[in-house]
Description:
The chain is an alpha/beta fold. The protein folds into three domains: 243 residues, Aminohydrolase, N-terminal nucleophile (Ntn) domain (Glutamine Phosphoribosylpyrophosphate, subunit 1, domain 1); 205 residues, Glucose-6-phosphate isomerase like protein, domain 1 (Rossmann fold), CATH 3.40.50.10490; 146 residues, Glucose-6-phosphate isomerase like protein, domain 1 (Rossmann fold). The chain contains 20 helices and 27 strands. The radius of gyration is 26 Å and the shape is globular. The model has no long low-confidence stretch (mean pLDDT 93). It binds 6-O-phosphono-alpha-D-glucopyranose. 6-O-phosphono-alpha-D-glucopyranose binds next to helix 10.
Amino acid sequence: MCGIVGYIGYKEAFPVLMNGLRRLEYRGYDSAGCALISQDGKLNVYKAKGKVADLEQEALGQDVSGTLGMSHTRWATHGEPSAVNAHPHISQSGRLALVHNGIIENYVSIRESLIKKGYEFKSETDTEVLVQLIEYIKNTYRTSLLKAVRIALTKVIGAYAIVVVDQDHPHEMVAARKSSPLVIGIGEENKEFFLASDATPIMEYTRKVVYVNDEEVVLMKRGEEIKIVNLANDNVNPEIQQIEADMGVVEKDGYPHFMLKEIFSQPDCVRECMRGRILAKEKRIVLSAIVNHKELLVNASRIIIVACGTSWHAGLIGKQLIEQMCRIPVDVEYASEFRYRNPVINKGDVVIAISQSGETADTLAAIGLARSMGATVFGIVNAVGSSIARATDTGTYIHVGPEIGVASTKAFTGQVTVLTLFALALGREKGTLSREEYEEIVAELYQIPDKMQKVLESASHIEELSKPYTYVRNFIYLGRGFNYPVALEGALKLKEISYIHAEGYPAAEMKHGPIALIDSEMPVVCIALHHQLYQKVLSNIQEVKARNGKIIALVTEGDDTVSKIADSVITIPATLSCLSPLLSCIPLQLLAYYVAVRRGLNVDQPRNLAKSVTVE
Ligand code: G6P
């Protein structure tokens, strides 16, 4: 989704901005722009539809000088992707420029009142009202930029992360946030400030950051301490934090795409996720969040999982794990539905929020609602220091490193790993899981990264078998039990990156509808592992076969029944049913990847999708 990069300091800003935008490309966008205040004090703005490279082309040969600037990648909400609708937006006088992430919900009424005052609008965006409103307040009340921004934001309903620059004040930059993330990097001795929608573009310059909180407005001036006020104009002390992240993780490391690198990194990521949490020798799990909130979790009468997209699929697996091991009823909700449904939350309910980015607007709002109704919220998050990590009462990071490919892969296996650790540790605390079962599962979980490695060895086989399916129009994915959510996730991966329509279904439900779609043109991916439902899935496969469907079967090593019926077979090592999603999801990720690559698509940045969905 939209990305912001800003810089004020002593270096030339343009390279910092372009470099930063490229680091944010993974978020998904359709146009880009930048504004700089040049050496001779002029505000220069460049915008282009398309990619950051198109913006650089647009700015080629133009004046891009200046040590203060901001830039933006836009993911269209109000108005089509175009240079006019791209940010920065410029005020009536041409002296103020603004970039914005989020949505201004009351933009229509603000726009109408400004039109009555003689303001003219060039774009179809909601954002343009902000820059005009700030200019109107600044001129009418003859205030500083900081004050004008603060007052303007008290009139606004919606979500925003904004940066504003003023040609008349070439030594300062003002930023603010509500519900849309914004991080400020503090460079050398306050001589320079970096600013971005997440820490990725900042990390190569400084590790000292301030996470801007909701309804805070920040003033950055060269050589001065950063100043933060809230919308009521109280001073806020900036909390400077040190971020630790390895820049290497945001490089492709020789892989053609981030997505492939991330698929292949899963054994290491899961090891990292379990590090210090599985005490292998003692066959024991230690999760500090459970230790610290033991009473509350052991006595939870119900757990509600809220999430979106792939994280929601991880939640469906979490439900089965927690119900099986802890005997606590679990509801899994789309955060976007939960937040507007006036849900029933009783005393003793615990909410688990799952999010890779930690910034998904609907999940963040669901957390706010749950907490306002008295629930304790446990977060399962990847992005350290993100809004969701900070908005939850407690939680566990999945620690799989930045995920750059828009289609989530390693974050999914990280989330499922944490949910497994959670269910095991809580089940043992509650006594609903016997010591023998617990130790058996812990020991097997410890082996999972090695087994994932074995699954990855079949990548070239999957690449080969996927060839005939490159140009089909539909796919069906079937699974049962723990592998029903994997079928949903496999279908989602294919949709996201190959644009082929795909449906995931619980295998037995196929006969209640999707079976009508099956003919010799329809590939059906069947997850048929050696678990208690194997025989049932086998019958479902026969039903597909009887209608000439093309069967791609995912089976356990040594299988000789399904393998004889299927058109193509992928084998995975034997494991426990409850841990099988950690292995079975990998071939489906690879299948989607190879189909999309052969279709010549942009695997890491699929059309219309965003990595961090900061609008509802
Ligand atoms: C977007 C991403 C998905 C992700 C979903 C939820 O749609 O493209 O990959 O699963 O958001 O994101 P979260 O960061 O909350 O897990």
